[in-house]
Write a structure and sequence with these properties.
Elements (H helix, E strand, L loop, with lengths): L2 H6 L2 E4 L6 H31 L6 H27 L6 E3 H34 L4 H4 L2 H26 L9 E2 L6 H6 L6 H35 L4 H28 L5 H25 L2 H24 L2
Parallel strand pairs: 1-3
Antiparallel strand pairs: 1-2
Length: 317
């Protein structure tokens, strides 16, 4: 890293989501509650899958990893955003900015590949049910998760190598609530148009490739379900519809922020908020509200936790 460039700009100013103090306090309360719900909701899903033997299957192993990734996806930017609502001087250090860029792309790319792994699991379960147990195992799922993290790390490193070498010598205001790669590139003291295209292409390789693979997988699955008249077809369709909803909610904002940017400030902020808070919040809701096995496991956990107390109360005269 060029020490001279680092010393010129040691921190960046985040303009955030609004200027009114009353709005800032309101947003602080709203996003604090949402962040607590995200953490607790995804934690409950992981605990259910780990502790309930009925959920010890490849699909739920991948779902537990998705909840883990979602929890960290919101933690990269949301705590800083919440704290800044109460601060007049919304600054972030150069190192903190670099860390946000790295972990945001690391976790987001990992989740994209993880969603592809979940689609592959459903493809094998529905289109090749007789071979499911031999193809999908916990070891195979662990390999898929490791692949997701590896691809995410390589993708994030490609951004990190670029951004640490950029010359920052003047402008330092970022019109967002976190250090977003396209906005940081614009602050560099150089012509960043080609670099911006290169970074969009880098994001497109991961994002578009995963999205196309997901479209192919779920199209094949839906065609197979359509031709089936068994009772299991409705269950398969319900499971896949939840997965497809999650895919659309996650990839929609990513495509319009990084792959096909619209250059509309308020829309970019809305998509960034939805991407950082909305998706990790909606994922647990979608999987718990539409999944009978998860709801049954939650009932078993609640009955187990209140069972001893309830039996003691019942014995009292």
């Amino acid at each position: 890293m060029d020490r001279r460039n680092q010393s010129v700009v040691s921190e960046f100013v985040l303009l955030g989501l609004g200027n009114s103090q009353n709005i800032q306090v309101l947003l602080f309360m709203i996003f604090l509650i949402l962040y607590l719900i995200i953490g607790s909701g995804n934690t409950v899903i992981m605990i259910l899958i780990i502790t309930d033997s009925h959920l010890h299957s490849p699909m739920y192993f991948l779902l537990a990893n998705l909840s883990f990734v979602d929890m960290w996806l919101s933690s990269v930017t949301t705590p800083k955003m919440i704290a800044d609502f109460l601060e007049e001087d919304k600054t972030i250090s150069f190192g903190g900015c670099i860390c946000q860029i790295f972990f945001a792309h690391f976790i987001a790319a990992s989740e994209m590949v993880l969603l592809v792994a979940m689609a592959y699991d459903r493809y094998v379960a529905i289109c090749r049910p007789l071979h499911y147990s031999s193809i999908m195992s916990l070891q195979k799922c662990a390999e898929l998760v490791l692949t997701a993290w590896t691809i995410g790390f390589i993708h994030a490193m490609s951004h990190l190598v670029v951004v640490v070498q950029l010359p920052f010598c003047g402008p330092r205001e970022i019109d967002s609530f976190f250090c977003d790669m396209p906005l940081v590139i614009k602050l560099a003291c150089m012509d960043s148009s080609n670099l911006d295209l290169l970074m969009n292409a880098d994001c497109g390789v991961v994002g578009v490739t995963c999205f196309v693979l997901l479209l192919i997988s779920y199209t094949h699955i839906l065609l197979t379900v359509r031709q089936s008249s068994t009772s299991g077809a409705s269950k398969a369709l319900s499971t896949c519809s939840a997965h497809i909803m999650v895919v659309l909610l996650f990839f929609g904002p990513c495509i319009f922020i990084y792959v096909w940017p619209l250059s509309i400030t308020w829309l970019d902020k809305f998509l960034a908020v939805f991407y950082s808070v909305g998706t990790p919040l909606l994922n647990p809701a979608i999987y718990t509200l539409r999944n009978k096995e998860i709801k049954s496991a939650m009932k078993r956990l609640m009955s187990y936790s209140i069972g001893p107390k309830g039996s003691k109360d019942a014995q009292k005269p």
